[in-house]
């Protein structure tokens, strides 16, 4: 459904050249749900704009829904939907009329556009809101309308740029419910960017992480976490001397780091390793005041790969 090779985009800013995307290689099969993650300025939107044929690449190629984004952008656009970060519906018409107008823009006849609007409102639970003006909808309802606008022409592939940003947790969950339903009922391929690591972790079957314009990780959330981050044991020793011994013993089990009286050890299978570790500490006379194990998060994956936290990078560049 998506095949990109060496996709690159440079921007000229004054006399400087900014390499927003550097040689993106990506294959997405039909029906996949891919979350595209990365800090601000990593190149997510630029990649999306190239894949949706809105922005020509500086170099490289991409075939999307069977057509070349540069050679045949109209064919690409007819087969994909794109839901950007900004609202796509205006405020002049009622919800149903907005959808019908959008359908007409895609070349549907009046009756067909009406049928399709009704169908899509049903799918996204917008039917009770058909006569409302978009300006009066809640954030979550408005976002569902944006998604409906992107689906009016039955695209095989839907790009969503930050579909749940700015919504409260309940509305976010509701958007996800609808996105998953879309995939289940229609087999739509979904490619979305999100800032919410937990959402990408639990909802997407594949996570692609981009940083400084390059893909640095690609796999299921589980694969990335066990290959690139590992579990973590944290123990707090009673004093610094004990912590130093705990770090030394920990380094035999995995990658140990010491901060004050806290020792963190990264390793596979922390829960089964913990009892043995605590026994070894006890045998060496180290007094432990707290101990816990944690499964890694996608943020740990990013930290392991770049030495930066995704959340910190977000704050720095925000
Ligand atoms: N039209 C443009 N002109 C100049 N530089 C640009 C342009 N568009 C993007 N860039 C630069 O390219 C880099 C990648 O930007 P992009 O918007 O793709 O990142 P992003 O990962 O989508 O970020 P965000 O999460 O903030 O949306 C940034 O350094 C940005 O400043």
UniProtKB/TrEMBL annotation:
To which protein family does this belong?
Belongs to the ABC transporter superfamily. Drug exporter-1 (DrugE1) (TC 3.A.1.105) family.
Gene Ontology CC terms, in alphabetical order: plasma membrane
Q: Name residues in a coiled coil.
A: none
**Does the keyword section mention Transport?**
yes
Q: Where in the cell is it found?
A: Cell membrane
One Gene Ontology term of the molecular function aspect: ATP hydrolysis activity
Origin: domain of life: Bacteria
What's the protein's topology in the membrane? Peripheral membrane protein
The organism is Saccharopolyspora erythraea (strain ATCC 11635 / DSM 40517 / JCM 4748 / NBRC 13426 / NCIMB 8594 / NRRL 2338)
Task: Identify the keywords attached in UniProt to this record, alphabetized.
Answer: Antibiotic resistance, ATP-binding, Cell membrane, Membrane, Nucleotide-binding, Translocase, Transport
**What Pfam families does the annotation carry?**
ABC_tran (PF00005), DrrA1-3_C (PF13732)
Task: Report the InterPro entries cross-referenced here.
Answer: AAA+_ATPase, ABC_transporter-like_ATP-bd, ABC_transporter-like_CS, ABC_transporter_ATP-binding, DrrA, DrrA1/2-like_C, P-loop_NTPase
GO-annotated biological processes: daunorubicin transport; doxorubicin transport; response to antibiotic
* Descriptive protein name: ABC transporter, ATP binding protein
């Amino acid at each position: 459904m998506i095949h990109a090779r060496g996709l690159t985009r440079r921007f000229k800013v004054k006399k400087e050249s900014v390499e927003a995307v550097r040689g993106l290689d990506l294959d997405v099969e039909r029906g996949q749900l891919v979350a595209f993650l990365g800090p601000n300025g990593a190149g997510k939107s630029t990649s999306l704009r190239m894949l949706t044929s809105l922005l020509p690449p500086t170099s490289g190629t991409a075939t999307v829904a069977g057509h070349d984004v540069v050679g045949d952008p109209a064919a690409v656009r007819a087969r994909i939907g794109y839901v950007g970060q900004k609202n796509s519906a205006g405020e002049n018409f009622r919800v149903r009329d907005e959808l019908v107008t959008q359908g007409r823009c895609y070349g549907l006849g009046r009756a067909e556009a009406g049928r399709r609007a009704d169908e899509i409102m049903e799918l996204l639970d917008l039917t009770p809101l058909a006569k409302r003006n978009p300006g009066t909808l809640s954030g979550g309802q408005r976002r569902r309308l944006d998604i409906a606008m992107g689906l009016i022409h039955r695209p095989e592939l839907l790009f969503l740029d930050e579909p749940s940003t700015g919504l409260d947790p309940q509305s976010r969950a509701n958007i996800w419910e609808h996105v998953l339903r879309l995939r289940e009922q229609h087999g739509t391929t979904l490619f979305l960017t999100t800032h919410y690591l937990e959402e990408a972790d639990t909802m997407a079957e594949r996570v692609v992480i981009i940083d400084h314009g390059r893909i640095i990780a690609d796999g299921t959330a589980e694969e990335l976490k066990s290959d690139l981050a590992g579990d973590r044991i944290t123990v707090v020793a009673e004093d610094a001397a004990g912590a130093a011994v705990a770090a030394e013993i920990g380094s035999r089990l995995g990658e140990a780091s010491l901060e004050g009286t806290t020792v963190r050890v990264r390793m596979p299978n922390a829960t089964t390793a913990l009892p043995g570790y605590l026994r070894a500490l006890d045998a060496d006379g180290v007094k432990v005041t707290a101990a816990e194990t944690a499964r890694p998060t996608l943020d740990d994956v990013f930290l392991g790969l770049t030495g930066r936290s995704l959340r910190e990078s977000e704050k720095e560049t925000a």
